[in-house]
Amino acid sequence: MEDKRNILVVDDEEQIINVLKAYLEKEGYNVYTAYSGKEALDIFYKNTIDFIILDLMLPDVSGEEVCKKIRLKSQVPILMLTAKAEEENRINGLDIGADDYMVKPFSPKEVMAHVRAILRRVDHNSIKADIIEFNNGDLTIDFDKMEVKKQGHNLKLTPMEFKLLSILARNIGKVFTRDELVVKMQGYDYDGFERTIDTHIKNLRRKIEDDKNKYIVTVYGIGYKFMEAKDV
After folding, report:
1. Least buried of 6, 56, 130, 174, by fewest C-beta within 10 Å?
2. Does residue 34 contact residue 81 with C-beta atoms inside 8 Å?
3. Considering only the top CATH level, what class is 6-125?
4. By three-state DSSP, how is residue 139 classified?
5. Residue range 105-145, pLDDT digits in tens
6. Bridge-partner residues for 78, per DSSP?
7. Where are the domains of the chain?
8. Can you tell me the distance from the alpha carbon of 132 to that of 169, in angstroms, rounded to the nearest whole number?
């Protein structure tokens, strides 16, 4: 059986949390709840969270600040809920990293529809195939054999380079921070410096890219993402 997704609901109104929790659990999600920004961050840092429903008007740390802190560590989908209906507020919420934005009052069924839509998009961008080809065979990754070919020729990648390429290529378009990549490659107890990721990226680019085909995109101030050359 597929593991349940963990969804964190953050709101200072108990009634809203109880209603959303009931709807989410009915759809098979595992639900964490928080009534303040500090509590939300504590839960997020200590657990694997797959989706966050975040109210902006919290009693301590604002929802905007919570979103910014989470975005320093993760690209977990965030759906913002707020009573702030002005266009400027909505734009600001999206600019700081929210995936979607809903204004109170709202229908719980509509919230569920937004959750499903965002998760479908996330799943669509996460590739599970054993063999992936990019740009008509320019780059081929065989995950079972741990082989990478460039225009039909085998590339010599180090285990760390292959692992890094696998993480990026299985999540086309998803931005990873250096910290996230370190954790995924080495685990939370790794004492290595995040900037070593830059060295692995540089070596990977030298091996898999050319003047025509670029794959690894630098997202300045954040980290890296993988894109097919036609989308770069």
Report:
1. 130
2. no
3. alpha beta
4. strand
5. 889 999 999 898 888 777 655 555 678 888 888 999 998 88
6. 52
7. 6-125, 131-231
8. 9
Evaluate if residue 206 carries a pLDDT over 60: yes
Integer Cα distance of 81 and 98 in angstroms: 10
Say if residues 172 and 215 touch (Cβ distance below 8 Å).
no
- Give me the architecture of the 131-231 domain, per CATH: Orthogonal Bundle (1.10)
Q: What is the reported pLDDT for 87?
A: 59
Cβ contact 138:180 at 8 Å = no
- How distant is the alpha carbon of residue 59 from its chain centre? 27
Residue 127 exposure: Cα atoms within 13 Å on the Cβ side: 21
Residue 174 per-residue DSSP state? -
pLDDT for residue 140: 93
Per-residue pLDDT band for 86 (boundaries 50, 70, 90) equals low
Whole-angstrom Cα Rg for the chain: 20
Q: Are strands 51-55 and 6-10 parallel, antiparallel or unpaired?
A: parallel
The CA-atom distances, in angstroms, between 81 and each of 56, 88, 202, 229 are 6, 15, 40, 36
Report the distance separating Cα 93 and Cα 63, nearest Å. 9
Strand partners, 150: 139, 153
From the CB of residue 34, how many other CB atoms can be counted at a distance below 10 Å?
Answer: 23
Report residue 225 CA to chain centroid gap.
11
- Whole-number Å distance between alpha carbons of 58 and 39: 11
Global pTM reads 0.55
